[in-house]
Amino acid sequence: MVHYRTHEPSGSPPMPLLRQIGHTSGHCNVRCDGCGNSRMTFYRYKCLRCLDYDLCSVCKENGVSNGLHLLEHPLQCLMDRDALELHFAGEPIPILCADSFTCPVCGEMGFSVEDLKTHCQENHIMAHTVVICPVCAAVPLSQPRHIDHITNHLMFSPSH
Fold first, then answer.
1. What is the pLDDT of residues 21-32, one digit of tens each?
2. For the chain, does the N or the C end have fewer beta carbons within 10 angstroms?
3. How confident is the model over 98-107, as a mean pLDDT?
């Protein structure tokens, strides 16, 4: 099992390493489910309830929804390499494609991984809502799956 740190201890990895672990300009193999754009850059919004639903920034801002996706579903903002470089402006760039996480159960935003664990333990210990883990979704080139108990997943997954 691969362990992911949010930041490299000695600063950001060199650019070739970032590209090897999945950090690229744009979001590879992802199409906006709102407008069909397959060249999303900077920010993409991954639904944490629908298995394969992503929106570009424009569609997210316009509240686009189709199919089984509902507007009240929580979204995780994911950044490509260019957005990470812009956002962190010379600071160490995180390995994950996000710098904060959204609770997939209630939609509250702005958590670190540890704060998300605590939030879920305190507020969703009995929740069995089928969701996608925002931390798993932030792993470059990942294919996250549905889980039915986010608290257990966050507490017992070795990479979290």
1. 444 566 778 899
2. N
3. 96
Residue-wise DSSP of the chain: -----SS-TTSPPPHHHHHHTT--SS-TT---TTT--S---SEEEEESSSTT-EEEHHHHHTT---TT--TTS-EEEEE-HHHHHHHHTTSPPPSSS-SSB--TTT----B-HHHHHHHHHHH-TT----EE-HHHHTSTT----EES-HHHHHHH-TT-
Per-residue model confidence as pLDDT tens digits over 38-55: 888 899 999 999 999 999
Total length of the chain:
160
> At residue 54, what are phi and psi to the nearest 5 degrees?
-130, 145
